[in-house]
Design brief:
With about 850 residues, the chain is an alpha/beta fold. The protein contains 29 helices and 14 strands.
């Protein structure tokens, strides 16, 4: 059949074929027929309107749709060829070459992965996008050939790809670290000290940089989560350091388990005895031989079971320390009860009341009740004529009513106790002492999230004071029948005097499990050797060296204020408190120079601050609000927290040592009576308030923040991030905009991605960026990591209570962090050009992945 050629200029036809077709088609002298032109035109329309030919933003489009779009080209070409018949042979030959040589390998390889669900995570998606981009280039070249076939030189172009997320001027705008710009109260002295140290470190790594103005601060936050968080953070930071970007991090803000790793960096990377600043991070995090652990990392592996290092002797020491603290706490209560018994015996001897105390309680209760009843109308009438005294009378009335009701309850309980003691049934006495344990166990079995569980927990807490009352009555009954000055009373009095004198020299921080916990952390993460000598645990102020390879370290803890008189806690019962090399303190207590605080409290050092930040179980726990159990947690010596002299009370006083003894602190802990004016303050895990460590970086208006979230969050509810966003808005007026849809758990426990990037709007002119890195699995992690997942279904969110890592467990978490760290630098996100700074990394990730949670997909 003869071919009817088109009367157009075909001068470029042979040239265009040479670029795309094999020799057999390239040397074919045929020119397009009218049928070829019609088929080519229809195919051009299809290609112009298909997702498979568009270079989409990474978070745009649908990969499954793109793959299906490529696959559907086979059916389209088939129908166009049938429609054109034999006169469409040239079009058919070229189109089938495109399908079989360039498109079929991609569709064949990825269709099976699509059916297996491998296109649901970022790792596989990036590989698909890479191949898709390569085949798109070929399709576009063939599009030009088909367009030329259809209409000569007047071929319509394929439309431009959709734009990536625009950063506008946000990356070019500089956020300058200025005192007036710092959110909330940050004293000038604190600001200046941090300013100087960060500039000093920057100038060491970049001698020709700006040494006058501090701008575009970079912060790294490591979340709570025990050794799990510390190990994931290690893997991520190893990848950051491999790209030589660790030097760009100005602040290291850590909470709880993240502080383990933070203290490791601060202890190993700040070298006071060297005259230059070589890359210590390289030495600490890597070995000179690629693929082999450095001595520092090898030690972390060897000590991953850090709480049990030292064998049976160490465990016996831990048990003995706990029992010793329990005994001291009990003796402190005994001293108070014995003293109270003596006071009542003196009252009995003076004739104030007789041995029957129930009559005394009854008299006091009825008297107060009568006074309140008969005087209240007169007080109220007089108050109305004295407006300035309104509050006084109001509080007096409330106090009198509460006291009266309390004494009535006290009277009823006292009568019941007397009946129990008079019955002589020892089983009843045993039941009374075991009541708190029974109530507490019932509360946890019922569930603390349920009303019944909360009521039982409150009852367990209230049983503490009742037990004290029972103990007082038991002791009083024991001494009631003897004379006031008999031998037994004299011996008890002598014992009481000796006990009081002995307790006055006890430091309660030394008798709690905190000390053991602190020593084990120091042995694993802080102690290291230089010149074959073991380096001691550094003081926090010792981190002020001239050779700083580590960022400025902020150690976050929760300042527990269950009875704070000032406003601003918003029901949190806690305040943000930080330790650093220069200052320690909070907005409410004020700040004290760290070197001065170390003289006041010689036990304060890097290990103490780290252990305090990780005090997950304590008698006060910030927002967790277990205050109902504070009495029992204190009595049973379950106190990983730390008692510190109040920075606000000592900042303007002469430097002197001050230790918390049972008289100054223990009764405050029993009663839950701490506020910002107390001489000593109660500190616990920073995660009891904010578990990401980002809050203080927002206070300092960091432009770029990398947050590693490795807390136990099996359902990926992002509780800590949501709390941070709420705190940022309430406390600072800062808006954080981030889309977490790709971090939600999908089928088989996998997510689409390991991270997401968001915008931090400090104000209209200052925008920062939060790179939120989530400990997660996408399905293409190293085989031994996935194998560990098969054996441990809760990985990577195993309980924080598990602080006894095996070698395989340690490596699974470190390798996951390493895998996530590599993911941050994938070419799909950052391109192939060299990264010169964290700023470059953040900008490229933002442009290629940011998607507003309020606008949906582009």
């Amino acid at each position: 059949m003869s071919e009817e050629t088109v009367a157009l200029d075909w001068s470029k036809w042979d040239e265009m074929k040479t670029k795309l077709l094999p020799t057999s088609l390239e040397e074919d002298s045929r020119k397009p027929t009218t049928a070829d032109q019609k088929a080519a035109w229809k195919l051009c329309i299809e290609l112009r309107t298909r997702i498979s030919t568009q270079e989409l933003h990474f978070r745009s489009g649908d990969d499954e749709t793109a793959l299906t779009s490529l696959y559907n080209l086979f059916g389209i070409v088939r129908e166009l060829t049938k429609e054109g018949g034999a006169e469409c042979k040239l079009f058919a030959d070229i189109a089938i070459h495109l399908l079989n040589i360039h498109i079929r390998p991609v569709t064949a390889r990825w269709h099976k992965k699509l059916l297996d669900g491998h296109l649901s995570n970022d790792d596989e998606r990036r590989s698909f996008r890479k191949e898709l981009n390569e085949v798109q280039t070929k399709v576009k070249d063939f599009y030009e050939l088909f367009a030329y076939m259809a209409s000569g030189d007047s071929n319509p172009p394929i439309e431009s790809p959709l734009p990536a997320a625009s950063t506008g001027n946000t990356f070019r705008n500089r956020i300058v670290f200025e005192q007036k710009g710092c959110t909330k109260k940050m004293p000038t002295d604190v600001f200046d000290a941090e300013h100087i140290e960060i500039l000093k470190r920057r100038s060491a790594f970049k001698p020709h940089g700006n040494d006058k103005k501090l701008e575009n601060l970079v912060g790294l936050a490591c979340s709570g989560g025990g050794i799990r968080s510390a190990t994931v953070s290690l893997g991520v930071v190893q990848q950051i350091q491999k790209r030589k970007l660790f030097k760009d991090i100005d602040y290291l803000s850590t909470v709880s388990g993240g502080g383990y790793f933070g203290s490791f960096l601060s202890a190993h990377l700040n070298r006071p005895n060297d005259s230059s600043v070589p890359d210590y991070a390289e030495q600490a995090l890597f070995s000179e031989i690629d693929g082999v652990d450095s001595p520092a990392i090898r030690k972390l592996r060897d000590h991953s079971n850090y709480l049990l290092i030292g064998g049976m002797l160490s465990r016996m020491r831990m048990l003995a320390l706990w029992l010793y603290g329990l005994l001291v706490n009990s003796l402190c209560l005994l001293a108070v009860l014995l003293g109270t018994v003596f006071l009542f015996r003196i009252g009995e001897k003076a004739g104030i009341f007789n041995k029957d105390l129930s009559g005394f309680y009854e008299t006091i209760t009825l008297t107060l009740l009568a006074l309140l009843f008969f005087t209240y109308p007169f007080i109220r009438a007089w108050r109305e004529t004295r407006p300035p005294w309104n509050k006084v009378f109001e509080w007096t009335s409330v106090f009198a009513l509460a006291l009266t009701l309390g004494l009535m309850i006290f009277y009823v309980v006292q009568s019941s106790i007397l009946n129990i003691l008079n019955s002589g049934d020892k089983r009843v006495v045993f039941f009374v002492f075991s009541l708190p344990i029974v109530l507490g166990a019932a509360a946890f079995l019922t569930g603390l999230s349920k009303p019944g569980g909360r009521i039982l927990l409150m009852a367990a807490g209230w049983s503490g004071p009742l037990l004290l009352l029972f103990g007082f009555q038991l002791l009083y009954s024991e001494f009631a029948n003897g004379s006031f000055l008999d031998l037994k009373m004299l011996m008890v009095f002598l014992f009481l005097v000796v006990l009081v004198l002995w307790l006055s020299v006890v430091n309660i921080n030394d008798i709690s499990p905190h000390r053991y916990y602190r020593n084990r952390l120091a042995e694993c993460y802080i102690h290291h050797h230089e010149n074959n000598e073991r380096c001691p645990v550094p003081k926090l102020s010792d981190l002020r060296t001239e050779n700083k390879a580590a960022p400025y370290h902020l150690i976050n803890v929760a300042l527990n204020l269950p009875t704070a008189g000032k406003s601003g806690l918003r029901g949190r019962d806690a305040e943000f408190f930080t330790f650093s090399q220069d200052y320690c303190g909070s907005e409410k207590t004020g700040y004290c120079e760290t070197s001065k605080m170390e003289k006041i409290d010689p036990s304060l050092d890097l290990a103490t601050a780290t252990a305090t930040s990780g005090a997950a179980v304590s008698n006060f726990m910030g927002e967790l609000k277990f205050n109902a159990l504070s009495f029992w947690l204190t009595l049973l010596n379950v106190r990983l927290g730390y008692v510190l002299p109040n920075p606000g009370r000592f900042v303007d006083k002469p430097e002197r040592k001050s230790k918390p003894n049972p008289y100054s602190v223990l009764w405050r802990e029993f009663r839950g009576n701490f506020d910002e004016t107390s001489k000593f303050i109660n500190l616990s895990d920073g995660g009891h308030l904010e578990n990401l460590g980002v809050y203080e970086l927002l206070r300092r208006r960091c432009k770029f923040i990398i947050a590693i979230d490795a807390e136990a969050d099996k359902e990926h509810g992002f509780g800590s991030l949501m709390k941070l966003i709420r705190f940022a808005k309430i406390d600072f007026g800062i808006d954080i905009e981030i889309n977490l849809s790709d971090l939600v758990i999908r089928d088989k426990g996998f997510t689409n991605a390991h991270f997401s990037i968001g915008k931090i709007s400090y104000d209209d002119n200052n925008v920062g960026f939060l790179l939120y890195v989530k400990s997660s699995l996408t399905g293409n992690e190293p085989s031994y990591v996935l194998d560990y997942k098969k054996e441990n279904s809760s990985f990577p969110h195993e309980s924080t209570a598990d602080q006894f890592f095996s070698e395989s467990q340690f490596e699974a978490y470190r390798a996951l962090g390493d895998h996530i760290g590599k993911d941050l630098f994938h070419a799909e996100f950052v391109g192939t050009d060299e990264l010169n700074s964290i700023e470059d990394l953040m900008e490229r990730i933002f442009e290629n992945t940011f998607e507003s949670p309020y606008e949906g997909s582009i």
